C-alpha cells in the first residue's frame, strides 16, 4: 500500500510538472455581464493552445485573467505551480516577466527605432545586462524573425508584416516561457500570414515555448495549434485537435469551419 501511495504521488508530481498553465473553474463578470462561467483547461510545457470564439465569448478576458490584469471572481489560475490569483502586484510582475506578447497591431513605439524598441523591452525586464549582452540579444531576436537589416528603421518605415515580425522579436527578446499571440495573422496578406505561421511553429520548436493563440484565422489555428478550444458564452464548448473540432457533432461548433 505504501509503495502504491508513493507511486501515485510521484505520478501526480510528474503530471503537474508537465502543466505550465492551469485554469480551474474560473468565473469573471462585469456587473450583470457574465463573461467567464467556470472555464477549466491546462496548457502543457511546449504546447500551443488556440482559442476560438466569437466576439464577446471571453477570449480576451481569459488572457487578462492569466496575466493578472483583471481579477477573477472565483476559481484558480496556476502558472508554474503558483496560483496567481493569490499574488500581490510584485508577485504578478515576476510572473509577467516570463510572458511575451504579440499584439494585433505590433504595438511598437513610433518614436523609437527597431533597435530602441527591443532594447527598451529587454531593459524593462532585466536592468543588469551589459551593453554586449544587450547587443547580442537584439541581434538574435531579429535573426529569429529574419529582419536583421531593419534594426535602425522606424516603425513608420516598416510594412504591416514587418511590424508584426518586429513585434514578435520584441516578445522573444525576453526569452519567455509563455507567448500570447493576439490575432497574429490579422490584417496580413496570405503570403505574409503564412510567414508568420511558420515563425510561430519554428519558435515553438527552437525555444519549447508554450503559447496561447487567439485567432479568427482558421489556417493559423490549423497549423499552429496543438490543441484548440472553442468558447461560447464564457464556457468551453469544444476542445481537442483541429480536425476533431472541425468534425464536431455540434452544429454551432461546426459553423466556425463553414466557408
Automatic annotation (TrEMBL):
Q: Show the GO MF annotations.
A: ATP binding; ATP hydrolysis activity
* Superkingdom, natural source: Bacteria
Q: Where are the transmembrane segments?
A: none
Keyword check for Transport, yes or no.
yes
Instruction: Return the InterPro entries for the record.
Output: AAA+_ATPase, ABC_transporter-like_ATP-bd, ABC_transporter-like_CS, P-loop_NTPase
Q: Which residues form the ABC transporter domain?
A: 21-258
* Pfam families linked to this entry: ABC_tran (PF00005)
Keyword field: ATP-binding, Nucleotide-binding, Transport
Q: Which PANTHER family match?
A: INTERMEMBRANE PHOSPHOLIPID TRANSPORT SYSTEM ATP-BINDING PROTEIN MLAF, PROTEIN TRIGALACTOSYLDIACYLGLYCEROL 3, CHLOROPLASTIC
Name of this chain's protein? ABC-type transport system involved in resistance to organic solvents, ATPase component
Amino acid at each position: 500500500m505504501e509503495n502504491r501511495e508513493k507511486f501515485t504521488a510521484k505520478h501526480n508530481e510528474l503530471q503537474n510538472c508537465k502543466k505550465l498553465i492551469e485554469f480551474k473553474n474560473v468565473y469573471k463578470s462585469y456587473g450583470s455581464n457574465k463573461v467567464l462561467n467556470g472555464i477549466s483547461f491546462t496548457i502543457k510545457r511546449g504546447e500551443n493552445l488556440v482559442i476560438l470564439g466569437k466576439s464577446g465569448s471571453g477570449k480576451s478576458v481569459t488572457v487578462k485573467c492569466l496575466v493578472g490584469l483583471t481579477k477573477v471572481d472565483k476559481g484558480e489560475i496556476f502558472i508554474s505551480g503558483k496560483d496567481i490569483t493569490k499574488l500581490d502586484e510584485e508577485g504578478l510582475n515576476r510572473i509577467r516577466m516570463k510572458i511575451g506578447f504579440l499584439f494585433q497591431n505590433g504595438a511598437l513605439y513610433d518614436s523609437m527605432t527597431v533597435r530602441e524598441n527591443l532594447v527598451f523591452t529587454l531593459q524593462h525586464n532585466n536592468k543588469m545586462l551589459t551593453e554586449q549582452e544587450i547587443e547580442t540579444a537584439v541581434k538574435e531576436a531579429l535573426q529569429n524573425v529574419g529582419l536583421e537589416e531593419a534594426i535602425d528603421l522606424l516603425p513608420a518605415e516598416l510594412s504591416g508584416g514587418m511590424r508584426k515580425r518586429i513585434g514578435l522579436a520584441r516578445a522573444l527578446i525576453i526569452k519567455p516561457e509563455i507567448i500570447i499571440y493576439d490575432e497574429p495573422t490579422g490584417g496580413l496578406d496570405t503570403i505574409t500570414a503564412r510567414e508568420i505561421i511558420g515563425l510561430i511553429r519554428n519558435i515553438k520548436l527552437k525555444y519549447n515555448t508554450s503559447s496561447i493563440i487567439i485567432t479568427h484565422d482558421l489556417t493559423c489555428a490549423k497549423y499552429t495549434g496543438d490543441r484548440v478550444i472553442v468558447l461560447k458564452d464564457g464556457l468551453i464548448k469544444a476542445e481537442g485537435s483541429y480536425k476533431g473540432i472541425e468534425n464536431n457533432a455540434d452544429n454551432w461548433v461546426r459553423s466556425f469551419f463553414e466557408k
